[in-house]
Amino acid sequence: MLDAKGLILAPGFIDPHTHLERDLSDPEYRSNLACLMQGVTTVFTGNDGNSPLPIGRKLEEWERNGIGTNAGLFVGHGAVRRVVLGLEAKQPTVEDLEEMKALVAKSMEEGAYGLSTGLFYAPGSYAKEEEVVALAKVAASYGGLYDSHIRDESSYTIGLLASIEEAINIGRKTGIPVHVSHIKALGTDVWRKSKEVIALIESAQNEGINITANQYPYLASKTSFRATVIPRWAEDGGNDAMLERFENVEVRKRLIQEITENIRIRGGAEALVFSETENPDYDGMSLRKFAEIRRLSQAEAAMAILSEEPNLGVISFNMVEEDLKNFMLKDWVVTGSDGGSGHPRKYGSFARKIGHYTKKEKWMDLSFAIHQSTARTARILGLDRRGLIKEGYFADLVLIDIERYTDKATFDAPYELAEGVEYVFVNGQLALEDGEFTGKLSGKALRLN
Ligand SMILES: [Zn+2]
Fold first, then answer.
1. How far is the CA of 354 from the centre of ligand 1 (A)?
2. What is the distance in A from the centroid of ligand 1 to the CA of 381?
3. What is the pLDDT of residue 2?
4. Rounded to the nearest 5 degrees, what angle is found at the Cα of 120, between the Cα atoms of 119 and 125?
5. How far apart are CA 13 and CA 10, in angstroms?
6. Are residues 307 and 209 in the same domain?
7. Which domain holds residue 297?
8. 283: number of CA atoms within 13 Å, CB side?
9. How close is the Cα of 2 to the center of ligand 1, in Å?
10. Do residues 16 and 99 both lie within one domain?
11. Which of 241, 269, 278, 447 is spaced 20 to 30 Å from 400 by Cα?
12. How far is the CA of 295 from the centre of ligand 1 (A)?
């Protein structure tokens, strides 16, 4: 018998957007404890255009080795493009496009839940809308979802609103359900534009287009420092090609101008904090500080650190609360962590939304926050018999001490486990008991088809 007195019972939470592929494949982390401790029982990965290939092999591997939560995959447009076209800024020939379509079809047959894109990132950014439409059509024919990190969440290139329009267009042209990942208004130029974004999306919904979004409840993002400051043309061909451009006097002048502008868009060099550095001295240091130490301009300092650490991460404080709130209160916006390393969202998103924004800030009631973390998400993803407490459904269940339920991870200490979840069942097996991991790996590798 299990004593659930004083605890609330909810369906296990579902996370539609993570970067946990490596964790799930690692003997040390495959229990997915960062998620279980928040009450998350199902995660998706392969987002932002970046997925393992072949999809089927990864799912089989997880099945063979065991995973602590359920996990599903998207097929990544960037991954597919990379196989066929490499990292170059070029357009596919007719044959190339057929090859890419075949890869998407194969992935959907192997169980992908849809096509993900990262149109902000290289190489996804080199694709024109028609290419994405052609591939989304294939995913649509298998009943998949179109999950997108849109081309520009800010004012880098086509801008936030045009990027939302592009996502809508892809839905309009293909009939595929569209899901905007980690919806936000990023950077000083687009702050307080959430209402315009919402109006655009809701008018598309009125037109009959199925479009939804996910969101993580933080005011800072985490991404690659390179993607944050370097223009895409300078990444054409990959890292070595980029470093060569840094050394070319003429190109360097143009780069300094554009990097300076990109730093401004992000809210200045103080708002860009290095994360996951190889050199521990730089971890937690802002670009402003680094430039001071090196006695370089901020743009030159950005190139200097990228020459040393091309895969450097960055925490970027670039959102305002008003936009966060406007998006969070929409019934078509669900919780998604975008969880990877270095940012507290991996260990805290669900506990923060439900703990902090429901109890402390009182932005919404508990039942709404839970619905947007369970049933609504399951419906968007086409998840079979999950997201509700119902006869005939899989027993993914959580028992939470709601008074104690809170996120502990912060930007200074991003790897602190959440508190307040007492029991977690994954597929009927007890994964967490009295707040402790039982050692059971009862998650399933999920397949749409
Ligand atoms: Zn993303």
1. 22
2. 17
3. 85
4. 55
5. 8
6. no
7. 223-316
8. 12
9. 39
10. yes
11. 447
12. 33
Give the pLDDT mean for 187-192.
95
3-state secondary structure of 245: helix
The answer to whether the CB of 166 falls within 8 A of the CB of 151 is yes
**Cβ atoms 209, 168 nearer than 8 A:** yes
Q: Are residues 325 and 208 in the same domain?
A: yes
Asked whether the beta carbons of 400 and 359 are under 8 A apart, the reply is no
The CA 153 to ligand 1 mean position distance, Å, reads 10
Q: How far does residue 182's CA lie from ligand 1's centre (Å)?
A: 7
Q: Work out the average pLDDT over 35-64.
A: 98
442 domain residue, yes or no? no
Cα(223) to ligand 1 centroid in Å equals 8
Mean pLDDT of 142-170: 97
Q: Say whether pLDDT at 156 is over 90.
A: yes
Asked if residue 301 and residue 335 are part of one domain, the reply reads no
pLDDT at 449: 74
Mean pLDDT calculated for residue range 270-277:
94
Last residue of a domain, one of 316, 345, 361: 316
Average model confidence (pLDDT) for the chain? 97
How many angstroms is it from 48 CA to the middle of ligand 1? Answer: 5
Residue 449 in any domain: the answer is no
Please tell me the distance from the alpha carbon of residue 181 to that of residue 146, in angstroms, as a whole number: 10
Residue indicated by tokens 């255009």: 49
Domain count, the chain: 2
| 283 Cα to the center of ligand 1, angstroms | 22
385 and 373 both lie in a single domain: yes
Q: What is the pLDDT of residues 392-412, one digit of tens each?
A: 999 999 999 999 999 999 998
Q: Does a structural domain hold residue 1? A: no
Give mean pLDDT, residues 410-422: 95
Q: How far is the CA of 301 from the centre of ligand 1 (A)?
A: 25
User: In 329-446, where does DSSP find H-type helix?
Assistant: 345-351, 366-371, 375-381
% of the chain at pLDDT higher than 90? 98
Regarding pTM above 0.90, the answer is: yes
Domain end among 283, 316, 349: 316
Distance 8 CA to ligand 1 centre (A): 32
Which residues face 333 on adjacent strands? 213
Task: Let me know whether 85 and 123 are in one domain.
Answer: yes
Residues 159 and 28 in one domain: yes
Report the separation in Å between the CA atom of 120 and the middle of ligand 1, taken as the mean of its atom positions: 8
My answer on whether 361 and 269 are in the same domain is: no
Please report the pLDDT score of residue 3 as a whole number.
Answer: 86
pLDDT winner (highest mean) among 2-6, 322-326, 341-345:
322-326
